[in-house]
Design brief:
This protein has a domain of 191 residues. Helix content is 44%, strand content 15%. The protein is built from 10 helices and 12 strands. Strands 5, 7, 8, 9, 10, 11 and 12 form a 7-stranded mixed sheet that branches. Strand 2 and strand 3 form a beta hairpin. The N and C termini lie far apart (174 Å). The relative contact order is 0.07. It binds zinc ion. Zinc ion binds next to strand 8. Keywords: Signal. This is Extensin family protein. InterPro entries: Extensin-like_C.
């Protein structure tokens, strides 16, 4: 019995010893920790989870990456062509620019150069086209004028002088003659005829005895020369067929009204001269007479010179 008791005690003793020795217990736990490394692999599974998570994350990124990749190729492809094109353009533009500049520069001076030296004569710039010329002749005919078409007139003394399509006007209105006739441009003759019809003839009807206008005593007609009465050397409108000078008006009763300085005469002759001189500015762009300068004391200078803004010089 004692032996059994002893055994029991012995058996029991270790138990209390283990119970007392809590420290040794860790030993078996230390032994467990050895397998613990095995459980370490279990932490690996969480790693797998991470990987899964990563994979899950990857898949999303993967598709976007694919999407990105897929779009990039097209974008790249689209970008490439335009890039190539622009590259080609700049390459072409650079060579084309210098090329274009060269031709543009060269022709410009080349064109400007010939134009200046060419310098068509002044009279040629006044040449009427067929329609304008024909219309003018028709106007003269309808007013009852008598005239002849003449060949072009030029002057070796000055290439600017001349009339490209002149007419020899002998009668601007029916029954009104120009002594000796006068060479001029058709438009000059047309203005002269209208002025005589609208103002001179009616004015003459108010003179004593109501004389009928039958003729004009001309001064200068066509003449290649510079202007008279001033220091300038500009070409006279007479040298282009644009001017006509009147020294006197002749009437059917044999009387005349000669252009002369008339001031404070207090008679109808003075009134007539003032009237025709003033109304001439309605038909001609230049009217000069007595008082304008010494050169115009004995005649009326009338011309149709075109000035900027339609300016008229009436003195
Ligand atoms: Zn004149």
């Amino acid at each position: 019995m004692r032996a059994l008791v002893a055994l029991l005690i012995a058996a029991l003793l270790p138990a209390p010893v283990f119970a007392q020795d809590d420290r040794p217990l860790p030993r078996p736990e230390e032994a467990r920790p050895e397998p613990a490394p095995k459980p370490v692999p279990p932490p690996a599974p969480p790693a797998d989870r991470d990987e899964k998570a990563k994979e899950q994350a990857d898949p999303p990124p993967a598709p976007p990456s694919e999407a990105k990749e897929s779009p990039p190729p097209p974008v790249a492809s689209e970008a490439t062509p335009p890039r190539d094109a622009p590259k080609a353009d700049p390459a072409q533009s650079t060579p084309s620019d210098p090329a274009s500049k060269d031709p543009a520069d060269t022709p410009a001076p080349a064109e400007a150069a010939p134009v200046k030296p060419a310098g068509p004569p002044l009279h040629a710039s006044l040449r009427e086209d067929d329609f304008t010329y024909s219309a003018c002749l028709l106007d003269l005919t309808l007013m009852g004028a008598s005239y002849e078409e003449r060949p072009a007139v030029t002057d070796s003394a000055d290439p600017d002088c001349g009339i490209d399509r002149p007419i020899q006007l002998t009668s601007p209105l029916p029954g009104v003659e120009i002594d000796g006739g006068a060479l001029m441009r058709c438009d000059t003759a047309r203005h002269l005829a209208r002025w005589l019809r609208d103002f001179v003839r009616p004015s003459a009807a108010l003179l004593p005895g109501q004389p009928r206008l039958v003729g004009l005593v001309p001064g200068s007609t066509y003449q290649c020369r510079a202007t008279v009465g001033n220091a300038s050397e500009k070409l006279s409108e007479h040298a282009l067929g644009n001017a006509f000078d009147i020294a006197a008006f002749r009437f059917a009763d044999g009387s005349k009204v000669e252009i002369a300085p008339r001031q404070d005469d207090g008679d109808l002759t003075e009134a007539f001269q003032h009237a025709v001189r003033g109304t001439a500015c309605l038909h001609f762009s230049t009217v000069l007479g007595p008082g304008a300068n010494a050169a115009h004391d004995n005649h009326l200078h009338l011309d149709i010179k075109a000035r900027k803004g339609g300016f008229r010089l009436c003195q």
